[in-house]
Amino acid sequence: MTKQTLKNFALSLALLGLALCASSSMAQVGLAAKRLGRRAPSSPAQAASLQAQTPETTSYTYTFLSYPGAVSTVAICINKGATTSKTQIVGGYGPYGDYEAGFLARVSGTKTVTETYQSVSYPHEPTTQWATCINDLGQIVGTYSDSSGVYHGYERSGGTFTKLNVPFSGATGTYPQSVNNSGEIVGGWADSSGNGHGFTLIGGTYTSFDCPGGTQTIVDDVNSAGDIVGECYDASGVGIGFLVSGGTYTPIEYPGAVETYAAGINDSGVIVGNYCTTSECEITFAGVQNFLWSGGVFTPLAILPGEVVTDVIDINNNGVLVGYYQDAAGLLVGFIATP
Q: What share of the chain is helix, strand, coil (3-state, %, to 5)?
């Protein structure tokens, strides 16, 4: 089952949108519309420069999220929890073929977990849309398509929606991906040539950026310090994760992987993401694996082993993970993994 045929999920989450793929997919929901690409295995010199992975020792308690009445539910972001003990999660829900809307789930309890759901939809746009992140203040960012199929971003603050469109020349779509407690919004935009770029929105000012030497830049998350994670692709479709902190670019490449996706980062700088070790995984997503990166050391994550696809997307300051899994019937179910 390929990314393109994973229930033909018609979306282009996070920045490149439809510009880079003939079609998008359900698997791309959690991977922020990662682009297909192939890369050669790391050379011995590259492998020697990477710190060795360490075995996972953490076990998790799982809570599964399913929006009432929806066939599939994907959890995309959890608030970091720097200024609140409340747990809030956003994502998208809908039938097999498309998103109906974004959702906000408020989660409470430890031994007995209770979830309450609220739909989050940009007003007067009954089209594809989803929520991509929420901060501790309850500000939500997301993406929707208009009746012409053009993708726009939005911010919801205090119940009020504000449309977000980058002002850059040639922009054909805007895809906000994350918002931190300072109100900094990060995401991506696509140009008329189908190239993807990152952006930041701080104090009303948009700034575009690209990873060094890359032809495509995908931005996934930002923490309270303004550290940004994402992926960078070259002209050959070779892609690795990255971290931008204090203006310094650091590649995030899982040892032995042919593709690495850096998906989420918390305020301690702990990063979660996914990686492929085979070219088949790059194309079909079969066998994709998850990791945690802290201080330059990778830890493989065994989350819900046995499911067809398991995708860890975000992490909060307490190490709680969110994402989704695909079961044997093809349904997507959001999850919370609490250490």
A: 5, 45, 50
What does each of the 339 residues of the chain score in pLDDT, given as a tens digit?
Answer: 222 222 223 223 332 332 333 223 333 333 333 332 223 333 333 333 334 455 565 689 999 999 999 999 999 999 999 999 999 999 999 876 456 889 999 998 776 788 999 999 899 887 789 999 999 999 999 999 998 999 999 999 999 999 999 999 999 999 999 999 999 999 999 999 989 999 999 999 999 999 998 889 999 999 999 999 999 998 778 789 999 999 999 999 999 999 999 999 999 999 999 999 988 888 777 788 999 999 999 999 999 988 888 999 999 999 999 999 988 888 889 999 999
**Residues 6 or more apart in contact with residue 12 via CB below 8 angstroms:** 18, 19, 20, 21, 24, 28, 33, 151, 173, 175
Structural domains of the chain, with CATH: 17-338 (2.120.10.30)
Q: Are 252 and 243 in contact (CB under 8 A)?
A: yes
Task: Collapse the DSSP code of 98 into the 3-class scheme (helix H, G, I; strand E, B; otherwise coil) and give the result.
Answer: coil
pTM of the model: 0.85
